[in-house]
Write the structure tokens for this entry.
Amino acid sequence: MRNLILFTAFLLIPSFIFPQIKATIYEKGYPIVTEDEILFSYFVVEKIDFPMKIIGSEREEFCKTSSDYDIVAVSRNGSQTKFGEEFIVARNEGVLYHPHTGKKLGYLMRRIGIAKVKCLEEETFLAELKNCIYPVQKGDYLIPFEPKLAIIAENKGFEECPTPLPPTGTIVYLENGFNEVGLYDKVLIDLGEEDGVRVGTQLTIVQYINDKIPKINIGNLIVIEAQKNISVAKILSCRNPVRVGDLVEFKQ
């Protein structure tokens, strides 16, 4: 029996036979953010001008919302589509304002599911829903599907002592509109590609406590999607609850 176990191990684990073979899949990190976390996150637009909109569903007489495997009707408004094509279902979450300046940052959009074209009509088409993270409803939009890649990296953490430099950016929104968030939650920051932020950039979260402790590092986040002037980030570590208005700074 013992010999059989050893023989099986030799077959399943090459390093038993060839010790020089090493696992290299995650030698530079591990999937710190999954594809779905990026795919079903937020983005911000200056105006709402998506042509395709959900105008009805097969169950609308009984339920105002739809979910996986339900069929919805979509207005095309001149958009070119084809059978089997997949789109992202996106919802307008309202106007996003800067917590410190009050400046309008745009319209906050969230990707909430996928719709696959089933039947084509001249001005509309029918689509089947799948992978919905929230119930889909009339008025939600369809936007082009863009595959996302997982982010492989290491959590750089954060230094206990803050730097003397002023923080660079601000957290302007917390996932689901919560008052406080924590580990692995998503936030939006007012830094983007024009500020040198890229997907994978890690920044330190900074809080101002009081006059005696004016500045303290409380966490680390990683950017999972970067736009021109705003980005979505995932909290990788934190020692205090994170709030709207907390600051972020580049690592030294």
The chain has a mean pLDDT of 89. The chain is about 10% helix and 45% strand.
